[in-house]
Write a structure and sequence with these properties.
The protein is of the alpha/beta class. It is about 50% helix and about 10% strand.
Length: about 350
């Protein structure tokens, strides 16, 4: 979430806080921060829910991998990153992009394949990209972004820059050779790399116990000589705390860090997936630990949020998604004569 949006949300709900939170002359900074975290998770959830409807209406085409249930990971890790840091994502990337501050309208237009999308309408759901925000895209290849993130981290180190590179990937990618090769080199070269593994227990339709002989992924990552630990990925405050600890360690020159973020996706692997490999009871058990509800209840208990404040945040999220949809509906597609742009070098550019 951008600083401007955070200020807008804080200003729009400041007068709605419960009296107990006003006792110190206004909502304190920590409470405002938690409200920002909640607003980001709500924005991701409402965006994804609308994508379900738009996909069903054939407004969005191609593969779509939803992030519903995993919002605390992108939000918590994103809160620990600064503007000079970089993010490399996977194909389940809508939440990562929104948490990074990529405009909702640019993400929605990309889902529609419109020229106003963050990738010019050429990437779609799995290839969101925003160089201005150092969001270096999703990747349709399982584990494909991991070595790219290491390359960006190596460049950052060679330039002597302050940035950390955060790479998101799933438990399925942990089984790929790219992860192990990258982890080895990152530790060997002390790269400023945060390896954020979103362990949602299923690599597409394969349960983790069937895929991995040893399911303690943090312990296995630690074998490469990097700090690594597991985190409750359904608790946004726990995620942020762990991410800040990792980022601080990386900035201090202690090399790469690994987080195993234990989370769960409520929806199928993709919109094409019939989701017949999971028992409904398991899904319901994870829903009982919903990250949005968990933070909401904690804030209510601490006197930082009431019904009116929550509804204001929710309305803001829904309105932003609706505005983005309207803009995407009316945005132009890329002209046919531009279809070879970025495919072939322009002759004038070649001559120069």
């Amino acid at each position: 979430m951008t600083a401007a949006r955070r200020k807008q949300l804080a200003d729009s709900t400041a007068g709605l806080a419960v009296p107990g939170a006003q006792a110190r002359g206004g909502v304190d900074a920590a409470a405002k921060h938690r409200r920002d975290l909640l607003a980001t998770m709500l924005l991701i959830r409402r965006f994804e829910e609308r994508c379900v409807e738009l996909y069903s209406a054939a407004k969005i085409r191609g593969f779509v991998h939803l992030y519903i249930g995993e919002e605390a990971v992108a939000t918590g890790v994103g809160a620990a990153l600064d503007s000079e840091d970089a993010v490399v994502s996977t194909y389940r990337e809508h939440g990562h992009a929104l948490a990074r501050g990529v405009p909702v309208a640019a993400v929605m237009a990309e889902m529609y394949g419109k020229s106003t999308g963050c990738s010019g309408g050429r990437g779609g759901s799995m290839h969101l990209f925003d160089v201005a925000r150092r969001f270096y895209g999703g990747n349709a290849i399982v584990g494909g972004g991991i070595p790219l993130a290491a390359g960006i981290a190596l460049a950052e180190k060679m330039r002597g820059g302050p940035g950390v590179v955060c790479c998101y990937f799933g438990d399925g990618a942990f089984a790929e050779g790219e992860f192990h090769e990258t982890a080895n080199l990152a530790a060997l070269w002390d790269l400023p790399l945060l390896l954020a593994c979103e362990n949602n227990l299923y690599a597409m339709g394969t349960p983790i116990a069937v895929e991995h002989a040893q399911t303690d992924l943090a312990m296995r990552a630690a074998s490469y000589g990097m700090p690594a630990w597991a985190v409750d990925g359904m608790d946004v405050l726990a995620v942020e705390s762990a991410a800040r600890r990792a980022v601080d360690g990386i900035r201090a020159g202690h090399g790469p860090h690994f987080l195993e973020l234990k989370t769960f996706r409520y929806r199928a692997h993709s919109m094409y997936d019939p989701d017949r490999y999971r028992d409904r009871t398991e899904i319901d058990q994870w829903r009982a630990h919903d990250p949005i509800e968990a933070l909401t209840e904690r804030m209510r208990a601490d006197g930082e949020l009431d019904d009116a404040a929550f509804e204001a945040l929710d309305r803001e999220a829904k309105a932003e998604v609706a505005d983005a949809e309207t803009a995407a509906e009316t945005a132009p597609a890329e002209p046919v004569e531009q279809l070879l742009r970025h495919v072939h070098t322009d002759p004038a550019e070649a001559r120069s």
